[in-house]
């Protein structure tokens, strides 16, 4: 059930439906989400409190269905055998991080993510590598998809062209990207390279999620993905729809009540307001 509010009241540790501008019940939300094919959990990569929240949602969804998998932006597809070996209990944590090339392919403190990795291993939940080879991002950004032979695309299909709304979103959150773009606009041809590169990641996550669903690796995939790839239905959700995946939802977090621009239908399915009490550093967790 939902709780009617005269104003947009969003206390800490509660969930808000931004489209309805109402608080929403957590158990009901989990039941609804369990019927999706993909639930994407946005993050700022260095926020331990957000990763705790992601773990909470993973646990909540596992309580509703057992055929879940968790996909991670952090790992390129070539490292899938390492993730499989970790889940199978074939390596300890230091060896897992070494074989996963953590310091090279990601680099954020591994303690931010280890609780989720441990959860997957202990619960027998498959982990999926959602990313692509980093050089592909650079090459497509510079040369475009047509310049890259099919066999060198890391299993990806070309991204559906970005909408102007997505270009404007990316321009706003990056201040135009490179400093020399500040006097340009989202429509400027000079911005194309940045947009193409961003869309390689969007498409990689979408393709690898779709492939896992089509291969019956899971009935529901939880995506651990940066927030900038998810807000307003742009990015990965847009590419998933292009691939025919309609049963999808995005969950995000906030530190304070949402401003009016985010209280819209396509911002996210629901937004969790994080508690502002003391958050231990990863090394203390």
Automatic annotation (TrEMBL):
This is Putative iron-regulated protein. Pfam families: Cofac_haem_bdg (PF04187). Gene3D superfamilies: 3.40.50.11550. It comes from the Bacteria. Residues 29-240 form the Haem-binding uptake Tiki superfamily ChaN domain. CDD domains: ChanN-like. InterPro entries: Cofac_haem-bd_dom.
């Amino acid at each position: 059930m939902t709780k009617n509010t005269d104003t947009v009241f969003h206390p800490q540790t509660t969930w808000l439906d931004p489209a309805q501008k109402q608080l929403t019940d957590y158990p009901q939300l989990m039941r609804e989400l369990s019927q999706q094919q993909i639930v994407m959990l946005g993050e700022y990569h260095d926020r331990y409190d957000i990763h705790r929240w992601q773990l909470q949602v993973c646990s909540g969804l596992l309580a509703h269905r057992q055929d879940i998998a968790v996909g991670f932006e952090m790992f390129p597809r070539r490292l899938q055998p390492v993730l499989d070996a970790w889940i199978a209990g074939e390596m300890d944590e230091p060896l897992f991080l070494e074989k996963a090339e953590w310091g090279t392919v990601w680099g954020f403190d591994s303690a931010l993510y280890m609780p989720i990795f441990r959860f997957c291993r202990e619960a027998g939940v498959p982990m999926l590598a959602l990313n692509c080879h980093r050089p592909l991002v650079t090459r497509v950004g510079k040369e475009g998809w047509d310049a890259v032979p099919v066999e060198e695309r890391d299993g990806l299909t070309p991204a559906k062209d970005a909408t102007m709304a997505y270009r404007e979103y990316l321009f706003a959150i990056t201040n135009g990207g490179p400093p020399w773009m500040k006097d340009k606009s989202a429509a400027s041809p000079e911005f194309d390279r940045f947009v193409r590169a961003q869309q390689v990641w969007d498409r990689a996550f979408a393709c690898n999620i779709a492939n896992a669903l089509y291969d019956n690796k899971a009935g529901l995939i939880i995506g651990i993905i940066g927030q900038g790839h998810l807000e307003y239905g742009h990015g990965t959700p847009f590419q998933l729809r292009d691939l025919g995946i309609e049963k999808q939802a995005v969950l995000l977090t906030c530190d304070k009540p949402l401003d009016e621009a985010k209280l819209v239908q396509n911002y996210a399915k629901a937004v969790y307001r994080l508690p502002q009490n003391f958050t231990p550093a990863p090394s203390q967790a």
